[in-house]
Amino acid sequence: MTIALYMDEHIPRAITIGLRLRGVDVLTVQEDGLAGTPNPILLDRATQLQRVIFSHDQDFLVEANRRQTEGIDFTGVIYTSQLSISIGDCIRDLEIITQAAELKD
């Protein structure tokens, strides 16, 4: 089984395109009609869709930590600093994660 991604609105389009060219199931916040929506609602939506959210926004880590602490289920967050990884490396790493992991991980 593979992981489907839900891309935060600030993720460069080149990453989304690169992943799709590699067969990764990707849905963007914009395509879902939720641009400008607060992070907790986006995390709820990703969970509803059974997708893991990918973001450069550290606030998702704070929200994920809160949910873990309080025992609130969510499908997960993949985070990387925008400044610490190239677009090509990001595409490669996300493709590996989506192919090698399962949603329960």
From TrEMBL:
Pfam families: DUF5615. It comes from the Bacteria. Residues 5-81 form the DUF5615 domain. This is DUF5615 domain-containing protein. It comes from Hydrococcus rivularis NIES-593. The lineage of its organism: Bacteria, Bacillati, Cyanobacteriota, Cyanophyceae, Pleurocapsales.
